[in-house]
Amino acid sequence: MRKGTTKRPFWPNRNVERKAPGLRYALVLICSVLALSLPVLGDSNAAFGAQKIRLATLNWAPYIGENLNAEGYAAELIRTAFQRVGYEVKFFFMPWQRAVNTVTEGSYDGLCPAYYTQQRAQTFCMSKEFPAGPMVLAKRVDRDIHYNRIQDLKPYKIAVVRGYANTKAFDEAKYLQKSFTNCDQTGYRRLLFGSVDLWVVDKFVAQQTKANHFPERAKEIDFVAKPLGVNNLHIAFSRTKPDYQHLTNIFNEGLAEVLTDGTVKQILTRHGLSLE
User: Collapsing DSSP states into helix, strand and coil, what is residue 211?
Assistant: First the structure.
């Protein structure tokens, strides 16, 4: 710049300035179209295509629990089945009766893991079943105990956790020598130390109890060959939700894959469980 000259501010070309209103209109139109076609910021479900399922549950080792690896076998199985169909799961832990009540009211999408009963089937939409441990009679390996009918168990003293539902036939057999305990760990101890002959227990619960309590003596305990019965597990979906049937159907779809491709066995193994 030569001395004595005044710097002129930069102005766009006059021809461009005259075209600016049309250009501005075009830019506004393009931005509007883009805004309508893009997901709302912060909506991770829309942005990534994953929808969320909210399930009420309880702490029930080894099936499900806040402090268990991957929140437990049942939690990992349910999560995996839903992932197969593009859904994510969030578990909310609470006392069982509260979980039942809140799902009945529609505060959550479903209740899990739940045994099938006719009453529950009337209240909830029950999913297809997935494996649970059979209800078995644990014994010491040095005892040769067999039975064909419940009546054959009359001679034996049996540890039973107070308040648990086992099987209808066993629970109604008032003639059996039932020694009531407050927890499965006590039943295991009584069996180990000989104050009872048998311990009625879910096989998965028994496997975890043996691993966590007196594991050095776990090989002293095995199971009577004939189980008392099997109560498999379900998700109970709330019928108050408008999409409850859809949720049931898509979970069943993902579950079918998990059950047929060997994934269930892998999940069981990771949690130290086995159906064999």
Answer: helix
State the DSSP string of 32-77: HHHHHHSPPTT-HHHHH-PEEEEEEE--BTTTB-TTSGGG-HHHHH
For the residues 46-67, what does the mean pLDDT come to? 82
Of 91, 30, 27, 37, nearest to 64 by C-alpha is 91
3-class secondary structure, 236: strand
The two three-digit tokens of residue 207, written as one number: 């496997």
pLDDT in tens, 138-189: 999 999 999 999 999 999 999 998 867 688 899 889 999 999 988 888 999 9
Amino acid at 206: A
CA 273, distance to chain mean position in Å, is: 16
CATH architecture for residues 46-132+232-270: 3-Layer(aba) Sandwich (3.40)
How many beta carbons lie within 10 A of that of residue 169, not counting itself?
12
Mean confidence (pLDDT) of the chain: 84
DSSP state of 126: E
Q: Does domain 134-230 have CATH number 3.40.190.10?
A: yes
Which residues of the chain are in CATH 3.40.190.10 domains?
A: 46-132+232-270, 134-230
The pLDDT tens digits of the residues spanning 218-265 come to: 999 999 999 999 889 999 999 999 999 999 999 999 999 999 999 999
- Residue 22: its pLDDT value, please? 55
Question: Are residues 238 and 244 in contact, defined by beta-carbon separation less than 8 angstroms?
Answer: yes
Of the candidates 273, 138, 275, 268, which has an alpha carbon nearest to the alpha carbon of residue 201? Answer: 138
Contacts (Cβ under 8 Å, ≥6 apart) of 232: 115, 116, 129, 130, 131, 132
